[in-house]
Design goal:
Elements (H helix, E strand, L loop, with lengths): L1 E11 L19 E10 L2 E7 L10 E4 L3 E5 L1 E3 L11 H8 L4 H6 L4 H9 L3 H17 L2 E7 L6 H17 L3 E9 L10 H18 L5 E6 L6 H13 L3 E6 L7 H7 L4 E4 L5 H7 L5 E4 L1 H7 L6 H6 L5 E2 L13 H12 L3 H8 L1 H5 L18 E6 L5 H4 L6 E6 L2 E2 L2
Parallel strand pairs: 1-4, 1-5, 6-7, 7-8, 8-9, 9-10, 10-11, 11-12, 12-13
Antiparallel strand pairs: 1-2, 2-3, 5-14, 14-15, 15-16
Bound molecules: N-(iminomethyl)-L-glutamic acid (NIG) and fe (iii) ion.
Length: 412
């Protein structure tokens, strides 16, 4: 199948294949071609360029994108999109004055979601999750990381990852999976953290590895959850099974988790709402990608990740949703990009780079998606008619998407 898109007002994020991520000042550069064409063959980007140089191409299908922008699909490198039920009651409790921490301390929060998930069948969990996957595809997401972590028993963690793997198999969206057994301490282990870490290391991990259910390993490194020592233990064990780290750190407290992640060669360190100079220094000269989750800050009314400090220090930055029932019940990357511009003072160029090429890097997918590059998957967003790409984050909350193509096929 060959699709030719013509008269594109601006083709955004056009890159050579050697670009894997962009950092610091490079993030303010967003290469584009005005009045462009894009040619897709069998799901991949085959050619693109200036309309003035349009070669004679044999297409099965031609799309006229007059007045419209074309950009690569969003790469959402941090989600918990496989979950059961919701936590709308906790949302109301927070409005009425309880804090996220208070709710968690009385058995709500992650433990609440885990209880619901444990009592949900694998098929039901799959059905609930794919509704969200279809929604985010329509919102322009073409690649997705999916974490476990709402199971907290061996069976339920495996159930979550099997559902994530089924999504990977049955949907065109690119999926990477992450084992997050160390998301919270189950009630039965309240006074026996070592026991739970042993269960993760000696029972869950071997099974996850045996069934090849995960690409990455994660842990919630946070006061009241898992310490630096616990993090070292879990990441060491993960490494023995070939799992690279992608960790939750510095959401509420900064106490050295970022440096520890870097030391373990983490692919990404995510959240970073609290960030100090040592954290920034640790990230310099590393291959670890800092990831900001602005919808989580928005929903919980906690500080935003200091994007300016990160980028101005010459570091790269990724934007992702954190889609989950507790802190971010939204998987809308368009909202993430807008919020990053509005609240974190990222420019539209920086935010689009952070949500595409850098997001792909944070999932190990830079060679496959995240830019308009010959040979990459034809995962693209065709916008409605808009005056410029600045308009996308500017007119926040509106739907600017006309069509989404994943593997060159239109998402219905
Ligand atoms: O990334 N911070 C840890 N985990 C999730 C949310 C957990 C929850 O409240 O369900 C997050 O925000
Ligand atoms: Fe998360």
């Amino acid at each position: 199948m060959r699709t030719l898109i013509i008269n594109i007002k601006e083709l955004i994020q056009v890159r050579d294949s050697h670009i894997k991520k962009v950092s610091g000042k490079e993030m303010s550069v967003l290469p584009t071609i005005k009045n462009a064409f894009l040619f897709i063959k069998d799901g991949f980007i085959e050619d693109y360029g200036d309309m003035a140089n349009l070669p004679k191409l044999n297409a099965d299908n031609t799309i006229d994108a007059n007045g419209k922008m074309v950009l690569p699909c969003w790469c959402d490198s941090h989600t918990h999109i496989v979950y059961a039920g919701n936590r709308e009651q906790e949302f109301v409790d927070r409005i009425n004055g309880l804090s996220y921490e208070e709710i968690a301390n009385r058995g709500g929060g992650i433990l609440n979601s885990a209880k619901t998930l444990q009592n949900t069948s694998e098929e039901d969990l799959y059905q609930q999750s794919i509704d969200r996957v279809q929604d985010v595809m329509r919102l322009g997401t073409g690649a997705l990381e999916i974490k476990s972590g709402y199971g907290l028993t061996t069976d339920a963690e495996i159930k979550m990852l099997r559902v994530a793997k089924r999504i990977q198999k049955e949907f065109p969206v690119q999926v990477k999976t992450t084992f997050l057994g160390a998301h919270a301490l189950p009630l039965e282990y309240k006074n026996n953290k070592e026991g739970y870490l042993d269960l993760i290391i000696n029972e869950m991990l071997p099974q996850v590895a045996d069934e090849q259910l995960a690409d990455y390993i994660d842990i919630f490194c946070e006061k009241g959850y898992f310490s630096l020592e616990d993090t070292s233990k879990i990441l060491t064990a993960g490494k023995q099974y070939g799992l690279t780290a992608k960790i939750h750190v510095n959401q509420f407290n900064a106490f050295g988790g970022v440096a520890l992640g870097v030391q373990f060669g983490a692919l990404s360190v995510d959240h970073l709402e609290e960030l100090n100079q040592e954290d920034i220094d640790a990230l310099k000269n590393s291959n670890t990608m800092p990831v900001a989750l602005p919808s989580c800050s928005y929903f919980l009314s906690i500080p935003y990740t200091p994007a300016r400090r990160i980028i101005d220090a010459g570091l790269p930055l990724t934007l992702a949703t954190d889609y989950n029932p507790g802190s971010t019940p939204s998987g809308n990357m368009n909202f993430v990009v807008s919020t990053a511009c509005i609240k974190m003072k990222m420019t539209p160029e920086e935010a689009i780079n952070a949500a595409t090429i850098n997001g792909a890097y944070a999932m190990g997918l830079s060679d496959i998606c995240g830019s308009i590059t010959i040979g990459k998957k034809a995962n693209i967003i065709i916008t409605k008619e808009v005056p410029s790409y600045n308009y996308l984050p500017y007119a926040f909350g509106n739907n600017h998407i006309d069509k989404v193509l994943i593997n060159g096929i239109e998402v219905e």
